Predict the 3D structure of the following.
Amino acid sequence: MDADGPVIETARLTLRPPRQADFESWAAFMDDEPAARYIGGRQPAPVAWRGLATMAGSWALLGFGMFSVIERASGRWVGRVGPWAPHGWPGLEVGWGVIREVWGRGYAFEAAVASMDFAVDHLGWSDIIHSIDPANTASQALAARLGSANRGPGRMPPPFEASPVELWGQTADQWREARARLAGASAIMPGRA
């Protein structure tokens, strides 16, 4: 753990709490319509700033939030993945979003596995959800690869209550079983999600 919070290293990534230095990359990510489509939509820089500050505030208030995902080989910011549970949310979530340039390399999966481990082993969560738009087939595939199942329609809190969402999820015990299968299959490899 560093002064800002925990730091998790995976084979190719470093996960750490967001910092102000992440803003330009965060804003560019949220300004990219295809990348932002299912995570609140494209946002101008002032709105993206509020999102970054909200995530940093979650770390300060709750001791967790989505991690900034840093590509170890280059040091560049490539997304935000991790635990997320704002007021009124339909459950304790591990969510993900990565820049388009790294789609298909398995970064979202690699970071999500580390985040699921963190949520279960360090935060003590007994159940984890993923709030996924029904049209977001890539996130559905990632959730299934993590071992989560579609639990059916959910309802988001205001101002997102009109947004369609399906809740995918699993218990901590199911995650431990899925994690054992993933480790046995050498599943944290490039190529998907």
